[in-house]
Amino acid sequence: MIRHRSARRVWSPLGRAILVCPRSLLVTFVLLLISAGLVLVSLSIGRVDVGLWQLLQILSGAGDGDLTERVVLGIRLPRGLTAVCVGAALGVSGAVFQSVSRNALGSPDIIGFTTGAATGAIAQIVFFGQQAAGVMLAAMAGGLLTSVLVYFLAVQGRVVGSYRLVLVGIGIGSILSAVNGLLLVKGSLDNAVTANLWLAGSLSARNWGHLLPVLAGCLVLIPMTLLFARQLHLLEMGDDLAAQLGIRVERIRLLMVIFAVLLAALATGAAGPIAFIALAAPQLVRRLLPAGRLPVMAAAAMGACLLVFADVLTQMLPVEAALPIGRMTGVVGGLYLLWLLSRTRSI
């Protein structure tokens, strides 16, 4: 067994040991504190100004039930919590895909799984309406079907090659992106406009119906991903070595891909396609933690922190129109990708 010196075994549910690194715990805790502070900022800004003391009273249940309390609890709080959950889901999804593909570019938005989830959601919006539950289910179905297609096209000799997975995913994502464009010209004009706005990625008008599915997905899928994180880390050293250590290579790889696809699909269904978060969160966390570990919880915390920060930034920009957060993260993500390509020779 390969174990980092700073890691300690603290829990072994169902016979699966979870190794905890004190530095990882510290980084995760700090990122969660920053995320919580940013959520408080997002709850206080807007057309209705809310002071810190008034905000704390409302959140503690000691509010007066006035307009300010309804705005905070009914509009801003679901939006802030949705940003946290969507960012966490994308962060973990990106960490898994980068580990499976052994490539810094292996994130669901680049490989094409997010595009597949968007295809399902757009089809639902254009042809059947924009009910939150329907959009969420359609996004999950689209993401899963895309992952199955990419996975089996990437199989060669009963083994999924890391670079082949990335290349096939990019190709499928390009096709589905064109399909999304075709879907926008179908159906009624109102639904097409709604689908186009959703495709930009936005946290505006998020309610509890958007939050609860992605929250439930995070509470279930992130701990399950954590349980198999050690096995996935061993796969990074090579399939042959992992098999000699008793790892069922293809089963673990497929299981983790399913977890990551579901997380990305739930995030996409809740807020639309959000770029950059899944790509950058695991990479930034790996620069803060000891080498050789799959940073599941830290990537979730970093993803939440990045998306909430982007949401606060878009709300504080001196422009009259509401800027979709997907466009903001896309611009930042493009610059980050160029920087990553210029610094990394192994991609």
Automatic annotation (TrEMBL):
Organism: Marinobacter xestospongiae
Alphabetical list of Pfam families matching this protein: FecCD
Annotated membrane topology: Multi-pass membrane protein
Family statement drawn from the similarity comment of this UniProt entry: Belongs to the binding-protein-dependent transport system permease family. FecCD subfamily.
Primary localization: membrane
Subcellular localization(s) per the UniProt record: Cell membrane
Extent of the signal sequence: none
Lineage of origin: Bacteria, Pseudomonadati, Pseudomonadota, Gammaproteobacteria, Pseudomonadales
Keyword terms: Cell membrane, Membrane, Transmembrane, Transmembrane helix, Transport
Membrane spanning residue stretches: 20-45, 80-98, 110-129, 135-153, 165-188, 208-229, 254-281, 293-313, 325-342
The protein, known as: Iron chelate uptake ABC transporter family permease subunit
